[in-house]
Each structure stands twice: as structure tokens, then as C-alpha cells.
Amino acid sequence: MKTCKLLALLMFCSMLTIAAPDRKKGEEVVVPYTNGPVYALPATGIRVYVEATYDEFIPGPYHSFAKELLSIPNVKTKASASWKIEQVRFGSFVTADGSQYHQIKSAAVADIAVNSVGIIKGINGEFDDEVTSLPMTQNEFMPFEPTVIDWNDRSIQEFVEVNDSLPDQWTLLSEKRKAYDAAHTITKLRKRRFHMLASEYETVPPDGKAYEIVVAQLKEIEERYTALFVGKHVVRHRTFVFDVVPNNSQAVAFRFDARKGVVPTTDLSGKPMMLNVVADSNAKAILNKQAGAGSVSPDGIYYRIPCMASVSLMDGTKVLASTTMMVAQEGVRFPMAPNHSQSTPKYKITMDQKSGALKSVVLLEQEKKEED
Description:
Elements: H1 2-19, E1 38-58, H2 66-70, E2 80-103, E3 112-114, E4 120-123, E5 160-162, E6 170-172, H3 175-198, H4 208-230, E7 232-244, E8 250-257, E9 261-263, E10 271-279, H5 281-288, E11 302-315, E12 318-335, H6 338-341, E13 347-351, E14 358-363, H7 364-371
Antiparallel strand pairs: 1-2, 1-7, 3-4, 4-13, 5-6, 8-9, 8-10, 10-11, 11-12, 13-14
Helix pairs in contact: 3-4
């Protein structure tokens, strides 16, 4: 019985000896990398700057007398307010591409470098962080307070009529009488400005600058009085900033309503302003024909060649703004060659943290020789 047990033990040991790999004494066993760190390729975000104006109209108190006293027809009689998009411009920022997270599955696990947001910086070296995202301005969507105009400031107009026989008693002038006095003042100001410009007065200010000031002041007073009949426009400005990371050809950048103005994408009362991104189809087709385009890397290390794209903001069929820019996620992904990252000799690989493209591939031994 003891002899059988001894024979079984010898046979088991011989099997282990046969199955063991042929390696030298002290040689390290290479363990496969199955759960390496995760990194991301970058995505290009589009920052949309929207400059809008809020135009508020306040009718004048004498609007009903504009045609009769000043021959100004079709004067607006109702208050109104509306928004208008004046200008749109584009910027860009960088963020991690949510659809391009990858896990290292090779010896490069010890040499990979990522930045603060997880975007790959390079392999086998030290690399600086590039700026990946700028702070977005906090948008103010609260409406403006209605404008209140003090129409009582009419400078040289009387508002009461004094009884000559009873100086302590007076009566308020009617609106029609006050409108007549204001219209008469406008006519006098126009005549005075005309004579100043025609130099018919003997007392023209000798200083050219003083002359300009007098004419400008006469015009300002006239405009203030004319507003009593035609009303006033109060225009205010506001700038909005929206960050969009496009993952297909179209995305809603924001919404717009002429009454409420620029509103966020969640406010369905506004019309959607669409951001269109169209990649250069010729360049993309050529990239897709290259060896390895879109294939899987056994090491889990990738880079990407970005693509130029046309970017436009559309209000229906109307183009509000357009530009061209390099868009990382519109490009084509390629796997890194395994011998670049884990074999001997090693290479220092630098990635563009904004686009995911290769910036340089340098043989470390050659780099060391150059430094020496």
C-alpha cells in the first residue's frame, strides 16, 4: 500500500515537470494584464456664444396728437417688447469622449499617463497637462424688469396756467394744450438748429468744438421732446454661452422665443436652434481605407486622427453662423502597434490631448543618446 502511494506521488511530480514552461532559473513569470487602468480619448466640445438684444417700446403720452401737431403718421400706440439674436460666434473646448473609454491590457499599464479628466497623454514618459475645459459663463434667463420712464421731465414746459387777476390760483393745463406747447417747442428747436448750421446768427460760437456741442445739445433736447409723441425704444443686451458636445450630425444648442428670448433646451416654448456638424466626407473616406482603421487593439491602446468639420447654427433653414474646425470625435480611431508600447527597445509616445492624435513617437534609446 505504501509502495502504491509512493509511485502515485512520483508520477504526479513528473507531470508537473513536463507541464512547467521551459525558462531559466530566476526568470520572472509574465502574468497577463486583464484589469488594467481605464483612459479616454478626447472629444471636441463646441461653445456657442449668443448675443441677443431686448427691445422694449414705450409709447409717448402725446401719441394721439402726433399727426395733428407734427404731421407724424402711424405712430405706435401700444407698449411692446421683443428679443432678437444679433450675433452668434463659436469657440471650442475639450472633454473626455464618453463613447471612447478603453482599458489597458498590456505591459504599458505601468507607463501610461493620463491628465486630470482621464484623457490619455502618452506612454513611457512625463507629459504636461493641456487645458481641457474652460469654465462656462452662468447664463441669466430671468426677464428684464419693465422700464419706467419719467415723462414729466420736459425742461422748459409749463404745466399750469396762472390766473393774472388771481396770482395765487392756477389751473392744470390739458393734455392737448401741453402737447401743443411741446410741439411748438420742437418747431422752435428745429429752426434754431437750422440757423446754427446755416451760420445765420452773428453770435456763432468762435470755438469749433463749442459749436458742435451746442448743436448736439439742441438735437438732444429736440429728440427728448419728439419722444413725447413717437415714444421711446429701450434696448438692452445680454450674452449667453452654451456648451454642446455633438455625438451626431445635429444637436439642439438652445431654444429661442421672440417674447421670452434665449431659453435653455428644456424650455419647449422656444424654437430649437440646431447645431449642425458635418465632417469632411472625402478625408474621412480616405482615413477609413487605411490599415487598422476602426479595428480592435489587443493592448487596448488607441489614438485617433481628427477630421475637419463644418459647424453651423440653424434657425430652421436660416444660417445664423458657420465656421470650420477640427472635431476629434468626427475622426477615425486606430489601434497602437503593440511593439511601440511594450517591447524592447521602448518608444516614448506623445498624444495630443485635444484631438487624440499622435504628436510624436521617439525611440527612448535614441532620445537618451541625444541628451548625452
